[in-house]
Amino acid sequence: MERSLGSALPPYEPLAEGLDMEGLPRSTVVSVEPPPPPRDHLVWSLCSALYANVCCLGFMALVFSVKSRDRKVLGDYSGALSYGSTAKYLNITALLLNIFLVILVIALLASGVITAVNYYNVGQEHHPYSGPT
Fold it and tell me: String of b and e for 13-41 (b: at least 16 CB within 10 Å)?
């Protein structure tokens, strides 16, 4: 069973008459750098889990970060990239929710203080001489 490669191979060209193999390089070394390992965002997830665990998003991000690190150790870079990306998005969501909640608490405290001061001032207007006599 002889296979015909036809046009799949380039045509063979013999060396020029005055050229021998000594003048040509014997081998070529190509250094291929491995791709950088995907990020697992473990420290960010740990901080989100400890300090900003809104709706357990920080804990879920920590779980996905550990899964990403495990996949990276096993050499499964596509799985590590997928888990790391999920951990990143969970961390971003937890961070945005925490910023929103901090702003909401500050606004509620400020409005509560303003309401309490107004209530106290209205009470003083009705009883101007309330106090020690």
Answer: eeeeeeeeeeeeeeeeeeeeeeeeebbbb
